[in-house]
Amino acid sequence: MFYMRRGIIISMKMSITQRILNKGLAARYKSPSQKIRVLTESWVGREIYCPSCGAGVNRYEHNRPVADFYCPVCEEEYELKSKGDGIGRKVVDGAYKAMIERLKGNHNPNLFLLAYDLQNYEVLNFFAVPKYFFVPEIIEKRKPLSQFARRAGWIGCNIILHNIPQAGKIFYIQNKVVLPKTAILKSWQKTLFLKKEPKTTERGWTLDIMNCLDNLCKKEFLLEEVYDFEKELKTRHPRNLHIKDKIRQQLQILRDNGYLEFLGRGNYRLV
Questions:
Q1: How far is it, in rounded angstroms, from Cα 27 to Cα 39?
Q2: What's the number of CA atoms in the CB half-sphere (13 Å) around residue 139?
Q3: What span, in angstroms and rounded, lies between the C-alpha atoms of 59 and 130?
Q4: Which of 68-72, 86-90, 210-214 has the lowest mean pLDDT?
Q5: pTM for the full model?
Q6: Which of 60, 145, 182, 229 could hold 212 in an S-S bridge, CB 3.0 to 4.6 Å?
Q7: Which strands make up the sheet holding 139-141, listed edge to edge?
Q8: d(CA 153, CA 83)
Q9: How far apart are the C-alpha atoms of 76 and 198, rounded to whole Å?
């Protein structure tokens, strides 16, 4: 499906049609990393739509810093990361200092993460992480490269996936199951309120509480149950002397933005 915008034909993908990578595209490459890059980038360009507006995404020219894809309609940008087999707990990213600077300036792209099975050339999992879920707490500083390395002293980073709330992992494909486009677009809209908060420290607090609610593993919960995370939150925020007050504040923010519903007498329900 296509439509015109400013004289440009825009692709509107209705859904993912297949999970199979086109292995023929990588036949002329010898490097495993080059092969994976070609296979996965081609698949994303063919199958994936923007989770913000639903339009097809376009590939940037190669060697562009940070972003790999962009949406020609809403102009969201996406960086693609690929992993063999399972998704795991973390994904390798670029330079630590550059990542932290991007977070401070809110210049980070959204993330596409693709997990593949190269033996069968199929996509196992694919999800998007909105850029406003990126705070310093999910970035792990790696050890400097040894003095014998080509880039001796260089310090990279990892993105710690388990520190991202479940609402920040918007699956298109989960364990080989393709999810409906309507659900993906709705999931993206659900957390857009986080984009309004430019300070990573405040967003970090909101994400911490969202993680606490994930860990409760229940639709309805009590305020007292969230208070049980006070010690853990104190470890993460040692300078805050009023953890319970902060918990109530963040629950209010989540309620005001439709993420959860207040039922009265300390009872809440996730929406």
A1: 10
A2: 24
A3: 18
A4: 86-90
A5: 0.91
A6: 229
A7: 90-95, 156-160, 139-141
A8: 25
A9: 17
